[in-house]
Amino acid sequence: MSATLGHGASVRIEACGKTFADGTRALEPATLDIARGETLVLLGPSGCGKTTMLRIIAGLELPDAGGRVLFDGNDMTAVPIEQRNVGMVFQSYALFPNMSVADNIGYGLKIRGMARKERAARIAELVVLTNITGLENRRVDQLSGGQRQRVALARAVAIRPGILLLDEPLTALDAALRDRLRGELNRLLRALGITTIYVTHDQSEAMELGDRIVVMQKGAIAQIGTPREIYFTPKNRFVAEFIGAANIVESPVENGHLVLPGGRQPIGGDANLPAAVAMIRPETIRVVEAGGAPLCGIIDSVSFIGDRQRMIVSGASGKFLTVDAPNTIKAQAGERIGLLIAPDAVRLLPPEH
Amino acid sequence: MRDRLIFTGQLLFTLFVAAFLVVPAILSISAGVTVNYFRGISSGVTLQWVFQVWDLYAGTILLSFVIAFATLAVTLLAGVPSAYALHIRGGRLSRIVEEIITLPLAIPGLAIALALLFTYQGFGSFRRSWLFILTGHVIFTMPFMVRSVMAVFATVDIRTLDEGAASLGASPWRRFRDVIVPNAVPGILGGSLMVVTLSLGEFNLTWMLHTPLTKTLPIGLADAYASMRLEVASAYTLIFFVMIIPLLIAMQMFADREQRR
Question: Which band of pLDDT confidence, cut at 50, 70 and 90, is reported for residue A45?
């Protein structure tokens, strides 16, 4: 129990797969290292295996034979969750309805045999930290969704866990509250500096909170990387499309140029490929005068979003091209425009099979 | 005006329906304090039959309560943990076990009693003790406790609460004590009410299982009707009511208060 704030344990999962009793393969055997103090986000659509992976790390699921879970190099595979010293925030929060807010936060400390006085001090500390002052004596069912989320977090970190596990902690909240709490959660996680594993299906949560992101697809890891790596250099089409907005362009390459209906787009180098798949982010496309631009198209529609405007352009690539332009450009549907894209903003993706 | 009419109509209908239940009970009870039932209430009012019943059956009445609360204790100790285990484990095996526990509701009490008699005919002292009746009552009332607790587990997502407590370091026993049982209280109270009521009123199983020395309230009642004056049997009914109604009201109030908390 000497774990202090700002540390935590390192985690390694080795060849952990999960097949459920009914034969469903929830997780392909995966190996993953999480450094001490790192915030790792497991990101993917529902059913991709991210929650299963989290539950294996937590000790709520046993991996298939051959899989191992190690904390700080110690094999924890057979250790039940109550002895793993992890803090967990559940999607439904799992607050105890029979206890007050303070008793919920203090429950883990009580289990550890901490004296009443010390416990009260620790609870007071967490109440301040998670910004729920004044709610200590409330019943759980008298709290709003956002308050419950904070209590759940306070309860999970009260025990000074080696690893903090969060299973879609913001999903149950409405959009505006989610955005605000995301910022708060980020500051809190940075301040705690504890090893954190965060499961979400929301890519903006993943981007903001993660030191690294693990993108998962159909029970397998599709890519591991920093938010920048994942965003700018996705390994495949699934990752490119799941993270942010992406234009996927399919065309042949001649002398280092994509050959498109609206013109020839340089991609750098002088490669020749009969068929290529390329990704272009909407914000990397500049709108210019049609004359002289390497790539031209016709504006199909413009939607004003506020900080920018999103144009759908036809005739440039085989499909519609999404362009995020500054909100100052005056453009109308039906207008012919030129599109300027830096060669290094075009990323070739491996062909699909 | 129209609302009043509707209300009056509903009230009359309710009283009419209630009368089917209440009137025979009142007639029966009043017979118990009449000097001579065939001559009617004009023959005078007396408590002699009540005292006579008390003298004859005090032991039976006491035994009934002992059995009812022993049944409650056993169904609580065995039923609540079973409900927890069945709910957490889930799967086909749990379903099958749940069905088996529920089976005594569908099987006639006589059949259960016969099965018990066949099984334990060799164990004389057990067969002759009140524990034999207790066994029957536990079998008969267990599904009410298990079902009622499981119904609550299903509504409060007990599995996630259990996992939450486990993540905070609580052992299975601590989880059961601190989180599972307190959150199952409405189901436990509802189940307890059913178990005590059913055990006190149970007749057909008990009738097969009892011996002259191990009689419960309903058996004594049948005995009184079969072998004594109608006034005595009616006085018995009166005692039955006086003992059970306050108990039921108390338990109901306790359950209501717990639910409001």
Answer: very high
What is the number of CB-based contacts under 8 A between chain A and chain B? 62
Residue A5 pLDDT > 50: no
- Domain ranges (residues) in chain B: 48-260
Contacts of B175 (CB under 8 A, 6+ apart): B162, B165, B166
In chain B, what residues touch A92 (CB-CB under 8 Å)? 157, 160
B24 half-sphere exposure, CB direction, 13 A CA radius: 4
Write out the CATH class of domain B48-260.
mainly alpha
Give residue B171's pLDDT.
Answer: 93
DSSP string, A6-36: T----EEEEEEEEE-TTS-EEEEEEEEEE-T
CB pair distance less than 8 Å for B163 and A85 = no
What's the CA dihedral at A49, A53, A59, A63 to 10 degrees? Answer: 80
Classify domain A245-349 at the CATH topology level.
OB fold (Dihydrolipoamide Acetyltransferase, E2P) (2.40.50)
Long-range contacts of A102-110 (CB under 8 A, 24+ apart): A102/A127, A102/A136, A102/A137, A104/A140, A104/A151, A104/A155, A105/A151, A105/A154, A105/A155, A105/A158, A106/A158, A107/A155, A107/B165, A107/B168, A107/B170, A107/B178, A108/A155, A108/A158, A108/A159, A108/B168, A108/B169, A109/A158, A109/A159
- Top-level CATH class of A11-241? alpha beta
What is the ipTM for the molecules in this complex? Answer: 0.84
pLDDT digits (tens, 9 = 90+) for B169-224: 999 999 999 999 999 988 898 899 889 988 988 888 888 888 777 888 888 888 87
Q: How many CB atoms sit inside 10 A of residue B102's CB?
A: 14
Please determine, for residue A2, whether its predicted confidence score (pLDDT) is greater than 50: no
Chain A residue numbers touching B88 (CB-CB < 8 A): none
Instruction: List strand residue ranges (DSSP E) for chain B, in order.
Output: 34-36, 40-45
Given a cut of 90, whether residue A4 has pLDDT beyond it is no
What does the pLDDT read at residue B227?
78
Residues in chain B within 8 Å Cβ distance of A107: 165, 168, 170, 178
Domain locations in chain A?
Answer: 11-241, 245-349
- The tokens describing A76, both together, are 């924890």
